[in-house]
């Protein structure tokens, strides 16, 4: 024992003499965030307009749910600018110039205006990451949009809208290809020490095989099994349908599990970044737009995560 102690002491002293420092683990902080996401059917149901009740419905929901991050899918450019203005007018963002990002799926799909997806953050954002996904054979080029917090660059918020197409392109189903591309980007972020929250329309139900490489192997329920991935979906502990969660599509649909509508709008976080409790929920579709404001529900989720500082 004395010999081993002496050797250890000599080794430590040699490291000091040589100026070689022992590896230092990165410092982390645990913080809780609420994410909010909605596919608003901005052209299909609203024809790109900003005065039919959609803008206040979604902005009020973001504020009322105390969201830290918000993601919008199927959004027209004029609607994006209107959401910015509404949130600014209420003082929701901490920075009035650096809280929103837009990414185009089509330059003209909103009656000649851009159509795509957007993210909003209560805290200032850093430079966005923008990735085009494999083409699905349509005129729409789907994307992955992410941005870190300016003051906490190892925390990123992302959104995506995966194609509903199941067409075989280059030997694989295109929806599988796009899901794999997004997951690969997230894994690269994780390898660089980042914590990522991603919210959006995945056009896949939780029990579908193409999400097995997403959901963590720690999740194994009758409603969702065979998983090999690293991620938890923030509603996957919902007692009404464990492993699946609550429907996110239009009310009255019964094509999902547990006698409810389908769940295709999801919020994922890598399991090894979760540092406390988490929960998710979907909200009834507002009807203040001369009828339903969307054919999707708003989805929210709160999670405590570990973030490298």
Notes on the protein architecture:
With 309 residues, this protein is of the alpha+beta class. It is 19% helix and 31% strand. The chain has helices at 2-18, 54-64, 77-89, 174-191; strands spanning 28-39, 69-76, 100-110, 113-121, 129-132, 143-148, 155-160, 168-169, 172-173, 195-201, 231-233, 265-270, 274-283, 298-308. A 6-stranded mixed β-sheet has the order 3-4-2-1-14-13. The protein has a 6-stranded mixed β-sheet with strand order 5-6-7-10-12-11, covered by helices on one side. Helix 2 packs across helix 3 (77-89). The longest helix is centred in the middle third of the chain and has 18 residues, at 174-191.
Concise structural overview:
This protein is α+β, with helices and mostly antiparallel strands and 309 residues long. Helix content is 19%, strand content 31%. It has a single domain (28-308), classed as Endonuclease/exonuclease/phosphatase (Deoxyribonuclease I, Chain A, 4-Layer Sandwich), CATH 3.60.10.10.
**Biggest sheet record:** 6 strands, mixed
> So, the CATH homologous superfamily?
Endonuclease/exonuclease/phosphatase
- Given as residue ranges, the uncertain stretches (5+ residues, pLDDT < 50) are 1-20
> Rg from C-alpha positions?
22 Å
**Classification by helices and strands:** alpha+beta
- The SSE order reads HEHEHEEEEEEEHEEEEE
What is the domain tally? 1
Helix content: 10-25%
Instruction: Give the integer mean of the pLDDT values.
Output: 93
Order of neighbouring strands in the sheet with most strands: 3-4-2-1-14-13
General shape: globular
Examine the coordinates and then state which fold CATH places here, giving the name of the CATH topology: Deoxyribonuclease I, Chain A
**Count of individual helical segments:** 4
What's the architecture in CATH terms? 4-Layer Sandwich
Quickly name the level 1 CATH class. Alpha Beta
| Quaternary structure state of the chains depicted | single chain
Q: What percent strand? A: 25-35%
Overall number of strands: 14
Q: CA-to-CA gap between the ends?
A: 39 Å
């Amino acid at each position: 024992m004395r010999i081993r102690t002496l050797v250890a002491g000599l080794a430590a002293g040699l490291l000091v003499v040589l100026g070689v420092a022992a590896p230092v683990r990165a410092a982390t902080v645990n913080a809780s965030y609420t994410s909010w996401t909605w596919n608003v059917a901005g052209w299909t149901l609203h024809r790109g307009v900003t005065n039919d009740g959609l803008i206040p419905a979604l902005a009020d929901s973001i504020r009322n749910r105390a969201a830290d991050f918000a993601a919008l899918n199927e959004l027209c450019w004029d609607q994006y600018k209107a959401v910015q203005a509404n949130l600014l007018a209420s003082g929701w963002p901490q920075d009035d110039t650096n809280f929103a990002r837009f990414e185009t799926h089509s330059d003209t799909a909103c009656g000649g205006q851009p159509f795509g997806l957007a993210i909003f953050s209560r805290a200032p954002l850093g430079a966005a990451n923008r990735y085009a996904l494999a083409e699905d054979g349509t005129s729409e080029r789907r994307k992955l949009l992410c941005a870190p917090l300016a003051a906490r660059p190892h925390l990123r918020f992302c959104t995506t809208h995966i194609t509903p197409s199941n067409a075989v392109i280059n030997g694989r189903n295109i929806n599988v290809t796009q899901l794999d591309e997004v997951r690969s980007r997230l894994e690269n972020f994780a390898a660089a020490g980042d914590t990522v929250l991603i919210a959006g329309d995945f056009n896949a139900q939780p029990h579908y095989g193409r999400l097995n490489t997403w959901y963590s192997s720690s999740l194994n329920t009758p409603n969702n099994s065979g998983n090999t991935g690293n991620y938890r979906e923030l509603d996957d502990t919902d007692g009404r349908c464990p492993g699946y969660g609550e429907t996110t599509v239009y009310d009255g649909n019964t094509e999902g599990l547990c006698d409810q509508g389908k769940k295709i709008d999801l919020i994922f976080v890598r399991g090894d970044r979760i540092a406390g409790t988490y929960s998710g929920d979907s909200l009834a579709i507002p009807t203040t737009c001369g009828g339903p404001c969307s054919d999707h529900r708003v989805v929210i989720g709160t999670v405590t995560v570990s973030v490298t500082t």
